[in-house]
Amino acid sequence: MIGSHLAVLGTALLLIAFTAPAARANHIDTAQVTQLTCDSFTITLSASALNPGQNYEIDFAVSVTDTCATPGTANYSIPFTAPSSGTFTTMLTETFPPQPCPLTFSETVTLVGENTIPIIWPNSHTMDTIICPTPTPTPTPCSPCPTSSIQSNFNGTAIPAGNTIWFNAHIKANGIPSSGATINFSCSTITSSAFSATVPNGVIIFSPNASCATTTFSNNTWTTTVPISGSDEIFLTGLAFPVTAGLPGGGISPVWSGIFSSSVPGVSVQWQWGAAVYTCWPAAPGVYNMLNVKPTHQNACNINNGDHAGTPQTKAFQCVTGGATGGGGSNFTGSWSGTVSTGQLCVQH
User: Fold this and answer.
1) Which of 109, 224, 230, 343 has a 20 to 30 A CA-CA distance from 216?
2) Which of helix, strand or coil describes residue 170?
3) What's the CATH number for 2-130?
C-alpha cells in the first residue's frame, strides 16, 4: 500500500521514535519505527489499560514530504479486541521502492474504542539517518533511426564567463498529410573541442485542429503544435548553455546531432540551428517556460512580429550580445547554420 503513496529517498530517510504520554485508561504505550531500511520500515504499536473484550482500533498514518514527488499519506487501520490482559501489541512491516529523493517521514497514531474518544499519540520525536545507495537509472535506448548532424562555426567574438549561449534549432517539413503527423527529435547532443552538452528532446505536432502555433516545455521536452500548413521555420528544440569558463573567439565548430522520426511515412525535414549569446539569462528553475519562445516564424499564436522561430519573446531576456553564431543587436537566435535535409524520416509510433 505504501508504495502507491510514497516516493522514497536515496540519500536520507528520517526515523521517528515517540515518547510515552502520562498513564491513563485506554492509552497508547508505544508507536515507534523499530527498523528502517532502504526499501521497508517496521513499526511497533502497543496500547494498555484497555477494557478486556472491548473492540478497539489503531489508526496509523504515514505522511511524506518528498522533494521529487507530490507529498502523500498512507493510512492503516488495525482493528482488534482487547485481550484479558488489557494490553495489545502488534508489529507492522511495509515495503516501498527506493528512490533518490530527499524525504521527510512522519506518523500519527490514534486509538479509538467503543464509547471512548480518539487518543492521539503525541508527535514529539527523535531522528536517525540511514544512507541508501542511489539506484542506477536504466538508460533510455535511442531510436534505431539514423542520426542527422550539422556542423557550424562560432564567429571570432570571445564569450566571457557568466554569459549564456541560447542554442536553438528549427525545421521545415514536407509530406505532412491532412490528418496530421508528429515529428520527434531525440538523443540530441552538441559537441565541440571546447564543450559538450545534452539537448532537450523536441516534439512537433502537426494538428488539423490548430489554427496557430504554440510551444511549451515539460519533462525535458519542447512540444510545439502547429497547423498542418506549418511554417518556413518551426522551432524544434533549444538549450540554454551557461558559460562557466570564458570561450575564445574563433576556433570552435560545434556539431549538433540528433535522431528524427515521424509518426507517419513520407515525411521529410530540412533543419538549421543558431546560437546567440545573452548577458542576463537567469539561472532559475522553470526558466524555459518563462522565455515565451516564438514557435514559428509565421502564424504564432498571440505573437505578431518578424522574429525568427526560437526567439525569446519575454523582453527581460532580450539582452543579446555578439558571440557564438550571432552578432548581437536584434539577432536573438544567432545566424543560421547550413541546411541539412533528412530524406524521408524513419517511422516510429
Assistant:
1) 343
2) strand
3) 2.60.40
231 three-state secondary structure: coil
Longest pairwise C-alpha distance within the chain: 89
In DSSP terms, 302 is beta-bridged to none
pTM: 0.61
Note the pLDDT tens digit of each residue in 63-86.
655 545 555 677 778 888 989 998
DSSP state of 159: B
Give yes or no for a contact between 289 and 310, defined as CB atoms under 8 angstroms apart: no
Residue extents of the structural domains in the chain: 2-130, 147-344
**What is the C-alpha to C-alpha distance for residues 102 and 6, in angstroms, rounded to an integer?**
12
Coil, strand or helix at 291:
coil
Q: Distance between CA 221 and CA 231 in Å, rounded?
A: 20
Cell numbers representing residue 16 in the block: 521517528
| Residue indicated by cell numbers 478497539 | 56
Q: What is the mean pLDDT of residues 97-120?
A: 63
Distance of alpha carbon 175 from alpha carbon 344, whole angstroms:
9
Terminal Cα distance for the chain, rounded: 34
pLDDT bin (cut points 50, 70, 90) of residue 93 is confident
Q: Which helix (H) or strand (E) holds 129?
A: strand 129-130
* pLDDT at 284 > cutoff 70: no
Whether residue 65 contacts residue 104, with contact meaning beta carbons closer than 8 Å, is answered with: yes
Tell me the C-alpha distance between 238 and 253, whole Å: 18
Q: What digits encode the pLDDT tens for the residues 2-55?
A: 433 333 322 223 333 333 333 446 777 777 776 766 667 777 888 888 889 888
Element (H, E) at 63: strand 55-66
* Rounded Cα distance, 222 and 284, in Å: 18
315: Cβ–Cβ under 8 A, 6 or more apart, which residues? none
13 vs 105: CA distance, rounded Å: 7
Strands 27-36 and 181-191: unpaired
